[in-house]
Amino acid sequence: MTHSLADAQRLHLERLEREYACLLDALGYDGVLLYSGHPHRHFADDQEASFATYGHFLHWVPLAGVTRSWLLLRAGQRPALYFHAPRDFWHLPPALPDEAWTQRFAIELRQSETPPPLPAGRFAVLGEVAPATAAALGAELNPERLTAALDELRVCKSDYEVACLREANRRAMQGHLAACDAFRGGAAELDVQLAYLKASRQRESDVPYGNIVGINAHGGVLHYQHYDLKPPDRQHSLLVDAGHRVRGYCADITRTWSGADADSCFPALIDGVTALQRRLIAALRPGVSYVALHERMHDELGALLADQGVIRCSPEAAVAAGITRAFCPHGLGHLLGLQVHDVAGRCRGDGSPLPPPPEHPALRLTRELEAGMVVTVEPGLYVIPMLLDPLRDAPVGRDIDWTQVERLAPHGGIRIEDNVLITAQGADNLTPGDAG
């Protein structure tokens, strides 16, 4: 870890100490116990499922994947980390890094995964904790007001967090460029995935979410979850949605490339979605409604579809008739941080619900933007038969060039996604440029 990152992390932890002390005092708690969480075994098996450390624990302790550990936080006292490090010859026991942040904690290495006893007072315990365990501790389990307040504390990122997110983006983009090269060399989806992992220096269990590697029509399956073992006979397109973790913080980048057998109209649509995305990023600044920005995405998608001859009606008519929603059913983006879809995206600052509009139920971010937020911006354009086919016999079907749709169908879809920091001056794109 560089000296500058260590200094930024020190300031980050000092801020957390101040903010936690204020919140605990305001809500009448003497302290809070955070549980890292633990993996679960598959039913009737001895193998454990994949695991993600609880975000509020990870906010303090930058060890993604740490399990069965506890963090006790009380105002005016050093954070107490009860680190689960059992003696084991089957597995390599976990160990703490030789980094400056550990000096801020009172650390106890423990064989047991049971929670530490709590002193007298009013305490909360947060995380995946059994009600009986919380009751035995005499603590309130996941109280809603405290949890919402701590979620809000993660919305705007410190300089340390931004540095981690920027580095995660840098490493992820190395993987994306290698994935593109593999595809253009004739690789199958599995080979593209392996090229991504190798270039980004990750094992598959460490990625922040399952990488989406969709060749041809698979690019139109929004969360496509497989990797074909054989290259396709014809190479129309590649969509890769893949990330990286640095000290727990997630990159979430998507790119789309045309293949050697792409229809002549497809590269122009990729360019159009990319230019649309760049305009939306340029509009980011504090005070902007993300719902309004999502609606602008649909306006611009309507214009792009009209310009490329995919629809015959006006962009305004396409939006009003729901045509653009059939071509792009997901939201423009979401908050990003210790979780890919980070907390508090659909809440006001006071924790009260802020649901998406009924016509845009998939939108994950409904707030006004604030300096310090990190958001994804990911417009898309897809040919999804399940959504488009019902329009064929509807009155709006006359406004769609179905011949164009059929030409595009083998390409699946397009998504271009960057990770952007909101600053007082506007937008700082954390995602490096690419040569794709």
Automatic annotation (TrEMBL):
Sites binding Mn(2+) 2 sit at D241, D252, E417
SUPFAM superfamilies in alphabetical order: Creatinase/aminopeptidase
What is this enzyme's catalytic activity, as reactions? Xaa-L-Pro dipeptide + H2O = an L-alpha-amino acid + L-proline
E.C. numbers = 3.4.13.9
Positions of the Peptidase M24 domain: 164-424
Comment on bound cofactor: Binds 2 manganese ions per subunit.
Q: Where is the signal peptide?
A: none
- Annotated positions binding Mn(2+) 1: D252, H334, E378, E417
Q: Locate the Xaa-Pro dipeptidase N-terminal domain: which residues?
A: 12-150
UniProt cross-references to InterPro entries, sorted A to Z: Creatin/AminoP/Spt16_N, Creatinase/aminopeptidase-like, PepQ_N, Pept_M24, Peptidase_M24B_aminopep-P_CS, X-Pro_dipept-like, X_Pro_dipept
- Function text: Splits dipeptides with a prolyl residue in the C-terminal position.
This one is known as Xaa-Pro dipeptidase
Natural source organism: Billgrantia campisalis
Q: Which gene encodes it?
A: pepQ
